[in-house]
Each structure stands twice: as C-alpha cells, then as structure tokens.
Design a protein that fits this description.
Number of domains: 3
Radius of gyration: 30 Å
CATH class of the largest domain: Mainly Beta
Distance between the termini: 65 Å
Largest sheet: 8 strands, mixed
CATH architecture of the largest domain: Sandwich
Strand order of the largest sheet: 5-4-8-2-1-10-13-12
Number of strands: 36
Length: 651
C-alpha cells in the first residue's frame, strides 16, 4: 500500500516537472493521480498543496499616455489540491486590484471544483457567475470574491483570471511561496526590447530563469519547484519578510538613437504626489469644525506635550475605527469627523489636522506595520505602507501617535511599528519630510514578578503573586485584559506543563495607560517529591516556562520588537520541621556580544528561601547568523531558571 502511495506521489511530481519544462495542462485537464493524492511528499503536515501557480504578463508600450506609458495583461492559472478538512478554507478566494482611475480591471475567466464520485470518475462543479462578487473596498481598491462549491478533503480546485492594467504598479511582486507547499510556480514576463525591466528574486531558494527572444520581444520565465510552506517560527518579524518572491520593476524605455526615458519613481516624486492627492495631502488642508468640549479641554493648557496628549486622547475616544487599513481618507476627513467613524487613514489624518490647529509641529508619517513587512527604502512607492500615523516634535523629542490604537499611551511608539522606518510627509519646500527610524532604546518591555509562597505539610505551595507590566509589557497584555479574567489567566498565568492553579485575580491601573498594569492573584502548586526529598522551582509566572528556541536550524531573524527587562523575585517558606539542601550556585551569564545578561542569586535564612532572577535584552532583534550562540544561551538560561531547590524533613 505504501509503495502504491509513493508511486502516485512520484508520478505527480514527475508529471509536474514535465509541465514545468513544457507547458501547464489546459484548464480542467486533471490527471487521476492528482485526484488520488493523499499528502504532499515534501511537506507531510500540509492541509493543502498548490499543484501549480503560473502567471504570464504581456507588456506593451503606451507612449501616448505619459502617466501610464506601459499597458500590461496578466493571465494567471492556479490549481490547488485539498488534502484534509483544514484545507477547505483555501476555497475562499479574494483577488484585490486597484480601481482608481480605472487603471486595473480583473475578470475571473474560469473556476471549478473537481471531485471523485463513487465510481471513481472525476466530476466537475463550476463556480456560477452569480456566485462571483466584485466588491468595492474603497475609492482605490476593489476585490473579486468567490467561493468554490462542493469542496471537501480530496477536492481539486482550479481557477483562471485576467488582469488588464495601465499603470506602472501593474507589474507586481510574485510570491513563489505560501503558507501551504507549492509544487510548481512560474512567472513569465513578455515585453518589447525597448522596455527595460528588472526582476530580482528574493529569498534563499535558487530560482530558475529562462530567457529567450521572439519577434523583437524579450521573454523571461522565472520558476521554482517543490517549495515548502513557510514554517511558523517563534518571534518572526513578519512572514512577508521571508517568503520566496520575485520583485519585477519597470526601469526605462530605451529606443535606439533616442534619450533613455526613466520609469523609476523616487521618493521625492512619491511625497509630491501624496501632498497633491485628494485623499491624502489635500485632506491636511481641511478646516475640521471645532468642538466646544475639545476647546474647553485645551483652553488653559499651555504645555505643548499636554496639549498633544489631550488631542490624541480625544480623537481615540470619540472616533470609531471601521477596521479598514490604509493611508487614505477615501471619504474625506470632514465626513469621518461628522460621522465619528472612519478608516485608519481618515482618523489619523484628522488627528494631524487637530494637532496642527493646536499649534503643534505635526506631520503624517507613513508606516508599515509588522504584519505588513519591512519597507524597501531603495524602491519608491506608497503601496509598501499599510498605515499612516501622526508624527509630532516637541522640544526636539519625537512622538508617534495612532488614534485607532486605544491601548498605547502617547509617550510610547506603537508596538506594531517599533524599530521600523517611517516616511514623514510634508511639502517638499519645507524640508520637513524624510525617513525616520521609529525607535527609542529607553522604551522597554519591562516585567517584574514578585512571588510569595508558603509550602504546607501537604506538599503544596500556597501564596500570592504580583506581576507589574510596564511599557510594552503592559500594551501587549491589554487586549487580553479586556477579554476577561479567565482568558487572561489562560493567556499569561497558566504555565504550560505545570499544575499551578490561579485564583482571585485583580488588576490595578487597567484604565490608566500612563501607569503600569499590576496583576495580583493567589495560587497553589504541588511540590515534587522523591523519597525523603522535596523540590520546586522558583521560576513562576515569569513567562519563561517553555523554551521557544530548541530547533537545530532557523530561517528567520529573531525579532522581539523592543528591548526587554525581566525581574523575578521569590520568597518561599518551608515547614519548620524541614531544612534546605545545598543551594544552586549564584551565577551570571552574558552573551558574547554582551547584549543579553542573565543573573540568578539565592540564599536562605532558617526556613525561608529568597531567590532573584534578572534578565536584560539590550537589542530588539538577533540575526539568524547568530542563532547558534543564541540557542545555546537560551538552553543554558532555561536550565538555570528551572534548577530545583531541594529540602527535606529534619530528624
């Protein structure tokens, strides 16, 4: 049975390799072996696998239009095998495109589901036209949305679409890799010799490139085979940063004997375009109606920082975010202000308007959140950013404000953009625009845990804990605070693999974002025993109960976001008829580059043990090239944190 299964998978892979060398099968021409496929040979845990994903982009010059000198037609054909019920989510498809000035038009040409019936015959179910929706997201983007019918484990889903565009952004990034494995992926550029296009693969895989000439045209095909799903690694900055991809870029139009015409945008062009855009720069000139309650709050406040805090707090309390991301005020800041609801772009451009009106030096800053990935500053384009925030300067100190964020105080850079590059937007003649690093080494993820426990004659630790979360340690906890105490206990206080019981949780300062979040609770935990000896660890409620860095290899950098500081203090009382055995040694451990420092100290007085752990990270991220050192440090640190304290009864 195993040999038959292996043969089927081998035939599929061989068949697809032939397709890679020759051509992809026509739509609907599905081999029986694809229907019988049970798993992915090189990624056994996959719930679905892309059998192939191919795109051909035909480019032609359109020199009569100086704003869009290139016209493109993309045709894409995708076939996916559903391996188990978890993979059925792949049947929901969304294709986003730019609808501004009608520069892009997407049409689904074919889509169907293939299943085997009881007799082993392939049965097709088409996606009907009335099940295909063209949804306008906002004034700039629309989506083609559809769901495949009759999808179950074993199905093969397949679709084709055509994307016609007249804009330089139409040649977009191509992703060879996904969150599920891909057997074959290819991207073909077909363009006239007079058009200069650069296409640079990004990632660790070696991409195959085939180039040929045909009728005064250059045809380049980039392909990759047997691409595993992007693995989920702890503390990865963003999947987008590590996906295998191809970034094509139109460089120039170059006719023999004529001056070369550059098609490359620079950041000055981008800033100028944004300042003149109706949905962005023009919105900064709107006279937003004043409100009497905000005027009253600001009336006697002279301090610039305090005025900023009041305005920021007012906007985030009075404006409701509709969960639409982006940098644009697509319906206008005045309409959003009137309705008290808007996109992230509208709300934060309102914030910038009000800050300027209050006499503060404020500008919009384009940012890319961690979920969106790093900005490539060498390639100009506002499409790399997914949010706009307010950038305020007071006495040479910069503040980054996001009024859609109800948790982060104004003195902290929002955690989602910490340690990234932001682009401040302003009129070119002011010279107040440009790149800025959103980073402050003094803004910490700071956690202090104080544990007091008494060990009973029944062999249980009974006690209380106080965990104080400051800075980013507070902000990352607040969403779980709002979900209720049982949820918070599961998320932060129930340590994996232990039998600790937490009760009577109370919060302090949860409604004052300028103060640390204090969590006070009681707990019980059994003490381990072996013969006459009993033992326990002082590593309680620290967050360091399970080492996330045990894999032998890693493909991504380790990204914590902020510098960190942890302090764990424990006091444990054993019964009067017991005494401690020899204590673990006090120790101090430092990374070779001194960026991480760990200390442990402990001592006893009669039947009381005092133990203290401190851990400090002086860097927010570590390169994957440092992983071996980092992994060994973490391994030793966890051994020291979990080393047991032993006691026994006296005679």
């Amino acid at each position: 049975m195993k040999s038959k299964k292996a043969l089927i998978v081998t035939l599929i892979l061989f068949s697809l390799k032939l397709q890679a060398q020759k051509q992809i099968p026509a739509f609907g021409k599905i081999d029986k072996s694809e229907m019988e496929m049970k798993d992915c040979d090189f990624d056994k845990k996959a719930e679905a696998v892309v059998l192939f994903d191919v795109a051909e982009v035909y480019c032609e010059l359109n020199l009569n239009n100086p704003y869009s000198p290139v016209k493109t037609v993309l045709e894409r054909h995708v076939r996916i095998k559903i391996l188990n019920t978890k993979g059925t989510d792949r049947a929901n498809i969304r294709i986003r495109y730019l609808n501004e000035r009608n520069v892009e038009d997407v049409k689904l040409t074919e889509a169907q589901t293939a299943n085997l019936d009881a007799s082993g015959n392939i049965v097709f179910t088409k996606v009907e036209k009335d099940a295909i929706y063209n949804k306008k997201v906002n004034n700039r983007f629309s989506e083609v949305i559809f769901t495949f019918p009759e999808v179950k484990a074993g199905s093969v889903i397949e679709y084709k679409y055509k994307d016609e565009a007249t804009d330089l952004n139409a040649v977009d990034v191509w992703y060879f890799q996904r969150s599920i494995p891909v057997i074959y992926s290819s991207y073909t550029l077909d363009f006239p010799n007079e058009l200069v296009i650069s296409a640079v693969p990004q990632g660790s895989f070696r991409v195959n490139m085939n180039e040929r000439q045909k009728s005064n045209r250059n045809i380049k095909t980039f392909s990759l085979e047997n691409i595993p799903a992007l693995r989920d690694e702890a503390y990865i900055s963003c999947d987008e940063d590590y996906l295998e991809k191809l970034r094509p870029m139109m460089i120039a139009v170059d006719f023999p004997g004529q001056p070369r015409k550059s098609l490359v945008r620079n950041w000055l062009n981008v800033i100028k375009t944004l300042m003149e855009d109706d949905d962005f720069g023009v919105q900064l000139k709107k006279n937003i109606p004043r409100t009497s309650d905000l005027d009253a709050l600001l009336a006697d406040v002279k301090d610039a920082y305090r005025r900023m805090v009041i305005i920021h707090d007012y906007v985030r309390k009075n404006m409701q975010w509709d969960n639409t991301w982006g940098i644009w005020a697509t319906d206008g800041v005045k309409a959003a202000w009137k309705n008290k609801k808007g996109t992230s772009g509208e709300i934060n451009l309102i914030l910038v308007n009000l800050l300027k009106d209050a006499g503060l030096e404020a500008h919009p800053v384009l940012v890319s959140t961690r979920e969106n990935g790093r900005v490539n500053t060498s390639i100009a384009g506002y499409y790399q950013f997914d949010k706009v925030m307010a950038f305020v300067t007071i006495n040479d100190k910069a503040y980054v404000l996001d009024a859609t964020d109800k948790i982060t105080p104004p003195n902290l850079i929002p955690y989602s953009v910490l340690n990234t590059e932001g682009l401040v937007i302003e009129k070119l003649e002011t010279f107040q625009w440009g790149w800025t690093t959103l980073w402050n080494p003094d803004q910490l993820y700071n956690t202090t845990s104080i544990i007091s426990g008494t060990i009973t004659d029944k062999g249980e630790i009974e006690g209380t804990g106080d965990v104080t979360a400051e800075g980013y340690s507070r902000t990352v906890r607040m969403d779980d605070v709002k979900k209720g105490k049982p949820h918070f206990i599961d998320a932060w206080l129930n340590q994996s693999g232990t039998d600790v019981q937490v009760d009577n949780l109370e919060f302090a300062n949860e409604n004052v974002d300028s103060l640390p979040l204090v969590q006070h609770f009681s707990f019980k935990k059994k003490v381990n025993s072996s013969g006459d000896y009993n033992y326990f660890s002082g590593n309680l409620f620290s967050g360091f109960d399970k080492n996330p860095f045990i894999a032998d290899e890693r493909f991504s950098d380790i990204f914590f976001g902020a510098n960190q500081k942890y302090t764990i203090v424990g006091n444990f009382i054993i019964p009067n008829n017991c005494q401690f055995d020899a204590l673990p040694k006090n120790t101090r451990m430092i990374m070779p580059d001194t960026s991480i420092i760990f200390t442990r100290s402990c001592g006893t007085s009669d039947n009381v043990l005092s133990v203290r752990y401190t851990l400090e990270f002086k860097r927010p991220f570590y390169m994957v090239s440092d992983y071996d050192y980092f992994k060994e440090f973490y391994k030793k640190m966890y051994e020291l944190m979990n080393e047991q304290f032993v006691y026994k009864k006296t005679n």
